[in-house]
Structures are given as structure tokens and as C-alpha cells.
Amino acid sequence: MSKSRRWLGKGDRRVLTLTVPIILSNATVPLLGAVDTAVVGHLDSPHYIGAVAIGALIFSYVFWSFGFLRMATTGLAAQAAGRRDACEVRAVFARGALIAVVAGLLVMVLQWPIMELAMRLIAPTPDVEAAAREYFHVRIWASPATLMQYCMLGWLLAMRDSRAVFIFQVVLNSLNIILDILFVQGFGWDVSGVAGATVIADYSGVILGWFLMQPHLARLGGRWRDVALFDRVQLLRLTKINGDIFVRTLALTSAFALFTSFSTRFGEVTLAANAVLQNFLMFGSFALDGFAHAAETLVGQAYGAERRKQFLWAVRKTTIWAVISACAMALVFAVLGVPIIDGLTSIDEVRTTAYQYLPWAVMLPVTGVLGFQFDGVFLGAMQTRHWRNMMLCSVALFAVFAWGAVTMQSNHALWAAFNLFFLLRGLTLVVLFPTIIPHKAAD
């Protein structure tokens, strides 16, 4: 027996087998964000970095307003799988896909008011605004594909197919990175090249995702025409859950929007430095999301089967590994933070400014780990009301402290408020956790 098998129990191996491929695949997402920053970070002005940061923020705000397409799909499909209801597993995806297409087309139709509202709220400098508009008007065409991918990833996670999730993310983001470099460094398309690369990659991802779903559809059996797509009870439940997730996600993306908006008050260089440092958050969050996704899947199946013991086991094991991972990432960021910054931008004044605020970025995995982890737990159980309310409270407090930071003209205080926000969203969910534990014990 190998050493790893002696110190890793069967439960640990089960969690890591599900989680590690997700973490590796998720790592390509912040890598893509880092490449986006790097390819424009080596152009001749910091306003390109700010423009991509603002453009990406707008799409994060819009697209993750529909984050329920990923989250609800995972939780509901996992619970249906736990009940061994094959038709409902198919129906969960079909309902989500229909919403994704309609919502994506609606976003494209409303692109002008979305952009104008964003520019009024963020109020960037003229150069940053012009480049951000260029980025936005290219990337908007990916909307239906981006939202469809949420459904596909959520469904594959519910099927516990971490290998397929790994293939999906790696292929999609590798293609995006290659096109990024080709369009910006090769063709000289600056921010429009970054946006165009995303559009092509997203539509390619939908085709790949459909092929990855086929083995599970064959295993489940049944036919699409037998799916109760408009089942009244399920639609009412879906509407309630999606409403809670929508409000919660809107609140979360509002926190990021506030952070970027307030960063603009400190000038282009500080905005660019904060955008560079947010890549540390991306690396940390997508790694921690691996354990959150594992919790969501394992908790969802246990909750659907009404297995109290299995539910508590899933929460305990995934949380332990998430905390270990968070501490390890903070250590890596502390050691490699300066070289990472240097790799993301060659502009000396942006580098120097980012060095000043690096310790705050190093802390984010530790202050954020419980928030990410218990997001997965509450989503797996589909207990979204408390989850929504605690996010609203955390964002409200963050807004107060962030405004105080702007009043004091302190970017350090803004970063402190950002860390406090992540800490609060976790602690509030931990306090409420006992209220969602299943009462029945079918183990």
C-alpha cells in the first residue's frame, strides 16, 4: 500500500478524486484572466488594463446575474440523481438550457442600456471608457453561448463527472488563451482581440459540452420527448430557487462592481494595480470552488436521498480539505506574489503600486474559504433563502466600509473592507448551517 493511501482515508480519496480535476480545470479560468491582463499589460498604456478589467466586470455582473443556471442545475440535478429520477435529471438541464438561450438573446438586445448604465456608475477616464466600450461591443455576441455553458457545467458536476469538467474547461480556456495571444500580439487588435477570442471560444465550448454530456444521457436512458419540461410543481420550485440565487448573485457581483468603481477614484494607476491583484483572487477563488463544487454535488445527492450521516460527512470532509487548500494558496501567493505581478504587467508604476497592496491579496484565500465552501453546502441542499439573505447583509456592510475607505482616500482601507466582506459571507453561513441539516436519517 502506498504512503498516500495509508494517510488518506477512503473518504478523503473520494473527495479528492472528485475535486482535484475540478481544481485543475478551474485553474485555467484565472490563467485566462491573467493572460487577458498580460497581453494588454505589455501594451503602451495602463488604460488597456483598466478597460479589460471594467469590460470583464460588466460581463461578470450581467452573466453571473444568471449564475442560477449553473448553481440550480447542479443542485437540482444532483438531488434528482440521488432519488434515481432519470427523467427529472434530463428535465433539469432542458429547463436551464431554454432559459439560457432566451436570456442570452435578451442581453444582446439590451446591450446599449447595459453599457450606458455601467459607464455612468463606474465613471472611468475617457481613454479607459473608449477601450472598454470597444471590448464590450465585441464580447456581447457570446451571451447565449456563455449562459448555455453554465447549464452544461452544472449538469456535468451533478453527474460527478469531474473528468468531463476538466476536459471542458481546459480545452475551452486553452483555445481562448491561444486566440488571445494571436489576436493581440499577432494581429494587434488590442482589447477587441481579447473580446473576440472569448466569443469564438465560448461557442466552441457549447459544441464540446454537448458531446461530453452524451455518455451520461445514454446511461440515464429515456428520451427527451418524455421529459416534463413544463411540470408546474418543478417550475414553481425552480422559479423560487432561481429568484433567490439571482438576488444573491446580483449582490455578490455588486460587491465586485463597488470595489472596481471605488478603485477608479484613486486614479488609473491604482485601478490598474487593483485589477492586477484581483488575478490573485481569481486564482484563489477558482481553486476553492473545486471543493465547493464537490460539496455541492455530494451534499445534493445526500440531501436528495435524505441521508443525514452522508450529508454531514460530505460537509466535514470537503471543508477540511478546503481550509488546507486556502492556507497553501496564501503561502504560495506570499512567496511568489512579486514575480506574478511582474509577469502580469511591465508598467513600472503599476508594478510598484501593486507591491504596496499585495499583502491584502495574499489574505483573500484564508478570509474567503468558508464563504466559498458553505456556498456549496447551501446550494447542494437547495436552501437558498438564508443563503441569499446573508449575502445581502455582507454586501451592505462592505458598501459602508468601502465608502469609508474612499472618504479617507485609502486604498489600503478599501482592500481591508474587501477582505472583511469575504470573511462575513462565510461566518454568517456557518452560524445558519445547523438549520439546514436533514432531520431524517435514511443511512
Describe the structure.
The chain has 443 residues and is mainly alpha-helical. 85% of the residues lie in helices and 0% in strands. It is built from 16 helices and no strands. It has helices at 3-7, 10-41, 47-63, 68-82, 86-109, 111-122, 126-139, 143-158, 162-186, 190-220, 232-264, 268-304, 308-344, 348-380, 384-407, 411-432. The chain starts with a helix and ends in an 11-residue tail after the last helix.
List keywords for this structure.
single chain; mainly alpha; disordered N terminus; 443 residues; 85% helix
Q: Beta-strand percentage? A: under 5%
How many helices? The count is: 16
Question: What is the ordering of alpha helices and beta strands?
Answer: HHHHHHHHHHHHHHHH
Q: In whole angstroms, how far apart are the ends?
A: 30 Å
The biggest sheet amounts to:
none
Give the strand tally. 0
* Helix content class: over 70%
